Amino acid sequence: MGHFDSASDAIWPGYTRREAKRIQLVLIDDHRVVREGISALLSLESDLQVVGDADDIETGIELVRLYKPDLVICDLTMPGCSGGIAVKKLCQECPTARVLVLTAHDSLECMRESFAAGAIGYVRKDAYRADLLAAVRRGAAGAQSVCRAVGDMVMRNWLLEPTPAALPVDTHLDPEDRQILRLIALGVPTWRIAADLSRGVKVVEKYRANLMRRLNLGSAAAVARFAIRCNLLSREEVDQLVSAE
After folding, report:
1. At 78, phi and psi to the nearest 5?
2. Residue 165 domain-assigned?
């Protein structure tokens, strides 16, 4: 039997074991406490490393270009970027980046927008630690993933939800249509919608009026019912609307 130097951990003489490369991450979220908490959690894992974090999408894009991370963890909604706009902008500016959405939103529409914009995964902020870590590792490896709560919701909707009633004839909705309908349904005032979309108030007022006319929705309540039927709202948001009535 040959004798190997145990200190070298060699499988044959002269071989040196190579250390596994750590997964490099960039974190984008406008809440400092969230960034610090997620960074602290990820730093406990020997194979994960947060190389940069940002509180807005423009700075985040600069960090992604600089570090070329294995995965970008990005919130869905930030100042000036509501809905899937942040993810879409990030994926357009950095087409090779893998983006994992980490958000408080869990509506089916938000999920569709995120994946359509180029996201590789979707995790709720109330997910279990193990779910987040699994999604991070899968996303960095190029595999799509969602946390268990999101997967359960999608499965329930697919298997158990009744077939929705017939919708208006003209129901082609682009991402901005869907985002504005969501905000109207949630009772967000026009001036705030304009601020979120970085548009003028009068422009949004006209857009809103034309959209409601096209869909034959005569009131905010009608918009809310339409949004629910089209799965534009999360279950929590629906519950809040119902309890407020």
Report:
1. -140, 165
2. no
